[in-house]
Amino acid sequence: MQHEERATETKPVERIVRRWTTCDFCQAEIREDAYEVREGVLSLRLGDAYPDSGHTTEQRVDICESCWEAKLLPWLASLGIVPQTHRVDW
Ligand SMILES: [Zn+2]
């Protein structure tokens, strides 16, 4: 006769409890509150996009608001570039 004895194992479960972004210029944490958006991203996406599939790669630089104002905008201005501003409401 075969018998079974069952036991319950408790395995530790690793989960992400906090996620944050740091500025690639000054390494400061880019802080956001629950309803506040403060995100600076400069990115280049390359790839192929078809109706049912595709792939892309993205190069991304995260920038805090201070570095955006003090470092990125002056550099862009020196090249004659003025970023476009778009308002998004939902
Ligand atoms: Zn910064």
Largest sheet geometry: 2 strands, antiparallel
Uncertain regions spanning at least 5 consecutive residues: none
Bound molecules: zinc ion
Which range best describes the helical content: under 10%, 10-25%, 25-40%, 40-55%, 55-70% or over 70%?
10-25%
Number of H- or I-type helical stretches: 1
Dominant shape: elongated
Q: Tell me the strand percentage band.
A: 25-35%
Quaternary class: single chain
Order of helices and strands: EEEEH
Terminal-residue CA separation: 67 Å
* Strand ordering within the main sheet: 1-2
Number of strands: 4
Rg value: 23 Å
Q: Which structural category do the helix and sheet elements fall into?
A: alpha+beta
Average pLDDT over all residues: 92
Set down the secondary structure blueprint.
Elements: E1 21-22, E2 29-30, E3 40-49, E4 54-63, H1 65-78
Antiparallel strand pairs: 1-2, 3-4
The structure holds zinc ion (ZN).
Q: What would you say this structure looks like, in words?
A:
With 90 residues, the chain is an alpha+beta fold. The protein has a domain at 21-48 and 55-78. Helices cover 16% and strands 27% of the residues. It is elongated, with a radius of gyration of 23 Å. The model has no long low-confidence stretch (mean pLDDT 92). Bound molecules: zinc ion. Zinc ion is lined by residues 23, 25-26, 28, 64, 66-67. The site of zinc ion has 7 residues, from helix 1.
